[in-house]
Design brief:
elongated; two-stranded antiparallel sheet; 2 helices; 7 strands
Length: 108
């Protein structure tokens, strides 16, 4: 009896997490999609309310010779607030390209 409950809870969590992610964002009449660069997003959506940036080191491992390559990835997160009745959005960029759009909720 416990297993069906766990399955239902897992499905609910997955659907909630998928619902909060998006592949495009409407800014007025303009549409911004994943893969857009920061210049395009700024032209279509304007200045974000806030920006956070950091550099992380990613490790790429070769499956053939077990070698590792370290690469620096520049990550920037832009936050937009679209008023008390609009959904807040967080846009994630990696090396200048839009890689993720997250909903923050209404008025946030």
């Amino acid at each position: 009896m416990i297993q069906p409950i766990i399955l239902v809870m897992a499905l609910v969590l997955i659907s909630v997490s998928l619902a909060s992610a998006s592949s495009s964002l409407r800014c007025g009449r303009a549409l911004v999609s994943l893969g857009a660069d920061k210049i395009e997003v700024k032209q279509k959506c304007g200045e974000p309310a806030s920006r956070d940036s950091r550099e992380v080191l990613k490790v790429l491992r070769s499956t053939t010779d077990r070698s590792e390559t370290h690469i620096a990835v520049f990550i920037e997160v832009w936050t937009y607030h679209f008023g008390p009745r609009g959904l807040g959005k967080q846009l994630h960029f990696q090396n200048g390209k839009l890689t993720d759009i997250q909903s923050l909720g209404y008025g946030k």
